[in-house]
Amino acid sequence: xxxxxxxxxxxxxxxxxxxxxxxxxxxxxxxxxxxxxxxxxxxxxxxxxxxxxxxxxxxxxxxxxxxxxxxxxxxxxxxxxxxxxxxxxxxxxxxxxxxxxxxxxxxxxxxxxxxxxxxxxxxxxxxxxxxxxxxxxxxxxxxxxxxxxxxxxxxxxxxxxxxxxxxxxxxxxxxxxxxxxxxxxxxxxxxxxxxxxxxxxxxxxxxxxx
Amino acid sequence: xxxxxxxxxxxxxxxxxxxxxxxxxxxxxxxxxxxxxxxxxxxxxxxxxxxxxxxxxxxxxxxxxxxxxxxxxxxxxxxxxxxxxxxxxxxxxxxxxxxxxxxxxxxxxxxxxxxxxxxxxxxxxxxxxxxxxxxxxxxxxxxxxxxxxxxxxxxxxxxxxxxxxxxxxxxxxxxxxxxxxxxxxxxxxxxxxxxxxxxxxxxxxxxxxx
Amino acid sequence: xxxxxxxxxxxxxxxxxxxxxxxxxxxxxxxxxxxxxxxxxxxxxxxxxxxxxxxxxxxxxxxxxxxxxxxxxxxxxxxxxxxxxxxxxxxxxxxxxxxxxxxxxxxxxxxxxxxxxxxxxxxxxxxxxxxxxxxxxxxxxxxxxxxxxxxxxxxxxxxxxxxxxxxxxxxxxxxxxxxxxxxxxxxxxxxxxxxxxxxxxxxxxxxxxxxxxxxxxxxxxxxxxxxxxxxxxxxxxxxxxxxxxxxxxxxxxxxxxxxxxxxxxxxxxxxxxxxxxxxxxxxxxxxxxxxxxxxxxxxxxxxxxxxxxxxxxxxxxxxxxxxxxxxxxxxxx
Amino acid sequence: xxxxxxxxxxxxxxxxxxxxxxxxxxxxxxxxxxxxxxxxxxxxxxxxxxxxxxxxxxxxxxxxxxxxxxxxxxxxxxxxxxxxxxxxxxxxxxxxxxxxxxxxxxxxxxxxxxxxxxxxxxxxxxxxxxxxxxxxxxxxxxxxxxxxxxxxxxxxxxxxxxxxxxxxxxxxxxxxxxxxxxxxxxxxxxxxxxxxxxxxxxxxxxxxxxxxxxxxxxxxxxxxxxxxxxxxxxxxxxxxxxxxxxxxxxxxxxxxxxxxxxxxxxxxxxxxxxxxxxxxxxxxxxxxxxxxxxxxxxxxxxxxxxxxxxxxxxxxxxxxxxxxxxxxxxxxx
Lengths: 210, 210, 333, 333
Ligand SMILES: Nc1ncnc2c1ncn2[C@@H]1O[C@H](COP(=O)(O)OP(=O)(O)O)[C@@H](O)[C@H]1O
Ligand SMILES: Nc1ncnc2c1ncn2[C@@H]1O[C@H](COP(=O)(O)OP(=O)(O)O)[C@@H](O)[C@H]1O
Ligand SMILES: [Mg+2]
Ligand SMILES: [Mg+2]
Ligand SMILES: [Mg+2]
Ligand SMILES: [Mg+2]
Hints:
The complex is a heterotetramer, with 2 copies of chain A and 2 copies of chain C.
Chain A: H1 7-23, H2 25-35, H3 40-54, H4 62-76, H5 81-95, H6 102-120, H7 130-145, H8 150-167, H9 191-208
Chain C: H1 11-22, E1 27-30, E2 35-38, E3 48-55, E4 72-78, H2 84-94, E5 100-105, H3 108-123, E6 128-133, H4 153-166, H5 171-184, E7 185-191, E8 211-214, E9 225-228, H6 232-247, E10 254-261, H7 267-283, E11 287-294, E12 304-312, H8 314-321, E13 324-325, E14 330-331
Parallel strand pairs in C: 3-4, 3-5, 5-6, 10-11
Antiparallel strand pairs in C: 1-2, 2-4, 7-8, 7-12, 8-9, 10-12, 13-14
Helix pairs in contact in C: 2-3, 4-5, 6-7
One magnesium ion sits between chains C (54, 79-80, 109) and B (37, 39, 79).
């Protein structure tokens, strides 16, 4: 394990995220069928396939990789998650300076969350991807403060995101399409929070493999 | 048992036919679903309900009863069976002179068959109601020739019609809507032949009860 | 069976009541017997056009009543030909002194009931001619069938004959135009699912999850054969091929291509079928100069479609393009 | 899943290809990014109208491109809002120098993507205003939802705003007309069956044989509550009541009544619903002076319908009646 995560890692992360999202396409569709319109798995799969098709192995900066991801997601995903993930990766790219140490990981996750909130105006407890990114950020900050390296910071973030996604189950949605269901949104896991956990887990997996 | 069947019997016959057709409405629909458009039971039920609503208990002639049946079926059944049964009862009415002895029964059945063939241009073996009326006529003629009374003539006709209806099962339809199915019409009993058997059985049942 | 109805026995009457209220500017509905005439019927001196048949094919026929198309439509019970009485009344109501053309789809029931009505109308001094539409190539026109069925070509014929009557053609000329359309139009249909007639309460046939019916009519009858589900292009081929085989259009011919939905198929799928059908016609050297895509003659909520090809000449094209103002087809007015 | 498609990934592209071929006289389709503009775009000096959203609602929006209605439509993937790029390109393509109005249905995805496109267009020097349609009374417009959805009222708004642009109104005036329509229109829908998104391959929700969903949107989302199947009149009441409660129209008001099919419901059933809905409005002292009945904004092959009531005044009535010439709505031309 190295001390910092570089552009090659970022490329590996996004490739891994694409594989995982493709594998979980139907699961995400089913989650979205329950409280939304059933396209989240298809949207993420389409977007990340497009990203991977454009990933330039010669990209030398983490920031550059994330910017490419942002632009491609914005122009291929559509729906609510397209602009939200697009802005997330755009702000993450802005936040990433050079290779990432654990503070860099915190900055990237903080940038992503900030972007999502800026666009989507959601806060925690509204049953959205914010409920995965928020605990992820807290966990990464805690890990960084404890002197844990970037891979460990991503692992802590991923685990927290996964727990955050699961914690959306009892929530009633008040943002996004699921809010139309009122109380009927209770009892289902939010698709966007779930894809967030998958993406951060891919980051941790690839960071640990560096 | 009397020697002849009068207008009161004719009214009883048609009332009985209405009850039996209503009871077999769904069976006739299912037969027509298999090789047609699924309306024969509904058509016959609608038509005979309308007939019964108009049946004038004061009608003194068999012929008058049958004429009323003809006009009402013609104006309420629609589809192929409306004009066919309408014409059948019209010609039967024309053939009925006074009360019916067994020769009268033969005349009535012969008139009905003639009317159906005149309108529908079908011959035996085409998987239509002609395949019930034709053996019915032959059986009635045989009974009359053997000196059997009108109730017995109707019974013989009804049994033959029932056998004729069943004999349509292996036939390939070449007339009516079922002909569109080609070989796929084979293996199903013709709905119109089946309703014919029901109507003639009602005639026999009520004649025996006179 | 889940349907937006109150009582199966009242489906036609309540539909007509709603239709009347929604389209009072264009049509007048008569009840008991039920028929629909254009609001300004009879049009003096114009040949009257009357069509009809079982209900369940909406917008056919009532949706095509209005200037430039039908003068009257006679709806029977669902999938059941109307009786002679309302046909007769409709015929009388639209006779403007120039005679009446009956447009009859070729089904034993429709033919018999329209024939009877025509006889009765003639007794009332109205000249009636009839065209019997039989465009469905799924059925062989042979001694061993009741002849080819009348299906989606009926819509095109009603429009074109209606335009001929509208421009002032006499009865024989309108009949000749109608006969020409009938001679030059062919259709073939496919069902992905059955439909449920309200009074029957169950699907008209049972189809497996991966089966479709090729060569269906418009009354929920089973088709000519059942095949496994296939991609749209392959299904389209199986509809286009028999049409071309039967119609044998000369290369370079101009045609109208009509892709019709059976009622339960999204419009997007109809355009996918249209796209491939058009390519097939162009590959066969035909020029598609007019098109119609949508739900124009349906089988309740059946999923599926039909493809219709009409050979055009200048006259038919002009009549197709002529103004029409009906609830379901409107252009140029 | 049985659909007349080839590959779920190509549904939108093949639909557009067919649409282009069938309606080349009215529209031009651009591919990659995908958008549809009227054949004579941009119309110099006229405010351009751009709408769009996920596909699967056909004929919305592409079917409404043409004189008197939309200048461009931007179709996303099925039930997925389009991305900013094609919205931007469509906006550029229809800008005739008088600015462009974006007609956006209120969904998080549509709003975000249209906002981004509008920002980018402004950077290119095009003035863009937006109206966000939110007519669905099934959803409370509160802090606890993403606000009311935009559903069938969108069709009426596109027609009326299109007429305003067509008569030469400037951008602010067209926007004001659009805002007025949005303020005066309310809708509510019901599903008798779910729909199947091609890429999902299974129904959007599972409904029992005797259950229906009240308060659905147009994306196959489950509705507000599930009730046992009921007669059409009772279902109609459950759609009309919340509309009247929310809209609170003054007695004597003139209204347009729009009964819209979700794609898989026979037209006859829509007229049955219309018939009862109209009675209910008349009982409430309203005068139904305009009507629309048919499949105008669908959810693929879903069975069900929505009811929309628009309060009319003389201006809106005149704009509704104005000529329109699009693939799916045509009158007066
Ligand atoms: N306002 C919002 N803020 C944050 N996340 C949101 C918001 N609205 C929706 N989301 C997220 O987007 C996800 C749905 O994405 P997707 O299904 O791709 O788009 P759509 O809802 O347009 O179909 C939800 O599960 C939720 O996590
Ligand atoms: N040409 C014909 N001659 C005699 N009977 C016929 C003919 N065509 C149809 N039929 C009879 O009519 C029956 C169908 O009647 P029905 O279902 O009520 O009318 P439709 O076929 O118009 O739906 C068939 O089962 C057959 O017995
Ligand atoms: Mg979604
Ligand atoms: Mg039948
Ligand atoms: Mg029938
Ligand atoms: Mg979506």
